Structure prediction request, 250 residues.
Amino acid sequence: MHKAPLPLGVTLLPLGAAPSSLDAVVALGLEGVQLDAADPDLRPRELGESARRDLAAALRRRGLRASGIDCFIPVERFADPARVERAMDAVHGCLSLAEHLQRVPVCMHLPHAEAPEVVQALQREAQRRGVPLADCTVPVSADASLAVCVDPAAVLAGGGDPAAVVAAAGARIVAARVVDLLRSGLRGPVDEPGASRLDTLGYRVALEVAGFRGLPVIDCRQWTDMRRGVLDTAQRWVALLPSGATGVPS
Prediction:
């Protein structure tokens, strides 16, 4: 019997070029893909209407859906007159593509200190399109109008507690990463024996209590053995709070 895909997304860019990377996600048994504005094959501002339709169709054919779009532009570019227009165009491209893909979240580091007027302008554009603009900044902004993306590895690197961050942000959370900060200082799979720092169960329970209903994204950027790490992370994550899942491919 065909197993339903696990309710998790994964960062697509580290898995290689599309469409082979989409096939890799299917083989991993996951439901979603996290697109990246830096992907030369799927750069949002360069995708016309036809290319966007093709992307949506490619996802549907494989039984996949977009979990969100990453737009990790260095915040200093928004304060640089020579680069701000290009940076804004990139974000607008992501927001437009996100609207086309069922209004999935766009995740980015908002330039709160560098260009607060840009933050306001991007919020207005996101609201106009009905797309969640998820701020990945650590520590989380106290601005209650901002949606939040929680990256537990980044929170741990800043000396914080991911579960406490989730509890404080509550309903503002529209995107959540599944990734650990290992004792080596590197990002990696969750619950690695002898290396894990994340209280993965506490983090997942906090997301459940907060009412998070998006696809948690396995963030395999910078991992040394991505396939094995993604499989292990998916299995460990599902096993924490089983809900009818039957496992992942080996």
Observations:
- Confidence is low (pLDDT under 50) at residues 244-250.
- The radius of gyration is 17 Å.
- Residues 185 and 202 are 21 Å apart (CA to CA).
- Residues 84-100 form the longest helix (17 residues).
